[in-house]
Amino acid sequence: MPMYGDQGNKLVQHAKRMQNLAHLPPYQTELVRAVTREVRDLDKDVASLLEPFQGSFDPSADQSTACTLLVNHLSMRRNKRCLLAYHRTRTDKLEELVWNGSDVLDLAGQQAGGVANGAAATVDSGASSSLSPQEEDYVRQFGDLLAAYKGQWTDIDLTGSLEPPRDLFIDVRVLKDAGEIQTEYGAINLTKNSQFYVRQGDVERLIAQGYLQKLG
Amino acid sequence: MSYYDIDSILTDAEKIPCTFQLDIPDLGYLDNTPNQPLKAGTKVNLPLWLAEMLVIANTGGPDNKTFVTFDLPRALGNDVVQALKADPRAVPLRDQSAHFYGLATHMMDLSEEQELGSVLRKTFVTRAAEISLHARKVGGGGSKGKGKDEGSNLGIGGAGEDFLRGLDEWERKLFRKAHDGAKSGKEWMESIKKN
């Protein structure tokens, strides 16, 4: 027998599983909708329970109604907590991905020119995204926020690697076309399957985003 | 325990046996009979998030009753407590409840079980020592050898796996932390030697 709160619990179990994953599983649109619908139904129940009392409900005079109201209220509160926790777990994960420099919106794997000098900036969302439209918006704006924050220090890359590099220059192979990038030593055109000997600092971001692979 | 804590929310979904103290026409669905009233005296398993408030909420009537009364869940029943007193390491807590300690803490807030607290404290301390022992062993075993009873001179070879399977969610976290700690420590030592 399904009970109020069961759907919300499923949502939280999704969140629990998500905590141990590297990627972000698809947004549970249906489940979220079911839980919000449940809240709306409960609210309607409460309204119709209270209607005959015309705003002068005395709990001690009608204990069974008082108990029903309490149960309804608690169920709504529970659902709210489940919904908020689910979304918060996801946004935490999204923020982490943005900080790591992974191209969150690029999950559909479309070509994006000019990614080279922008962070996870403005890429149009693919058709089969695992984010909800609101989440895509969140990521975009959080990315902008982070870029603005990082912009305050020109000589330090806040999202750069914490590992001190062993070599200044490294060999890289291009895994997918990344367009042209500007370096101190001129422009390099990164076309798929080509190989380059470049300064690590110039391509770190592209490696993190999966465009290049470090060799050796 | 934050409002957003996933484990805390899942703990609140654990059910405890409750008994309703009055007839309630609209709550029949809690006892699988949606179209009939819920009679006083009906026993229903309710999730903590619901039960917790119902057992403390006062009906507001002259006799100062609460809506429901509750019993300790089987996970904290006499059988389990006796087994824990005998040997905390021999009880697979996970079979009782995946959030055993969380459930127990909630129950102690609601009831006045004096003995339970001390039994649980002893249980956790004893098991924590065992957990750390296993965690370090796995960390030291290296990633290549998946041999089950390597280093079983401690007398915890195959039985160790059973023990680890019986950890509740909180203990699992402890195990993971201890294990990761031992592993990172080892990796750090090795990187020092290399340079």
Automatic annotation (TrEMBL), chain A:
One of its GO terms (cellular component) is GINS complex. Keywords: DNA replication, Nucleus. One of its GO terms (biological process) is DNA strand elongation involved in mitotic DNA replication. Residues 50-153 form the GINS subunit domain. It comes from the Eukaryota. Residues 167-215 form the DNA replication complex GINS protein PSF1 C-terminal domain. The keyword Nucleus applies. Coiled coil: none annotated. It is found in: Nucleus. It holds the Pfam family PSF1_C. Component of the GINS complex. Required for correct functioning of the GINS complex, a complex that plays an essential role in the initiation of DNA replication, and progression of DNA replication forks. GINS complex seems to bind preferentially to single-stranded DNA. Belongs to the GINS1/PSF1 family. This is DNA replication complex GINS protein PSF1. It comes from Apiosordaria backusii.
TrEMBL record, chain B:
The GINS complex plays an essential role in the initiation of DNA replication. GO terms for biological process: mitotic DNA replication initiation. It is found in: Nucleus. Pfam families: PSF3_N, Sld5. It comes from Apiosordaria backusii. InterPro entries: GINS_A, GINS_bundle-like_dom_sf, GINS_Psf3, GINS_Psf3_sf, PSF3_N. GO terms for cellular component: GINS complex. Component of the GINS complex. Residues 137-159 are annotated as: Disordered. The lineage of its organism: Eukaryota, Fungi, Dikarya, Ascomycota, Pezizomycotina. Keywords: DNA replication, Nucleus. This is DNA replication complex GINS protein PSF3. Belongs to the GINS3/PSF3 family. PANTHER family: DNA REPLICATION COMPLEX GINS PROTEIN PSF3. The keyword Transferase does not apply. Residues 78-189 form the GINS subunit domain. Residues 4-56 form the DNA replication complex GINS protein PSF3 N-terminal domain.
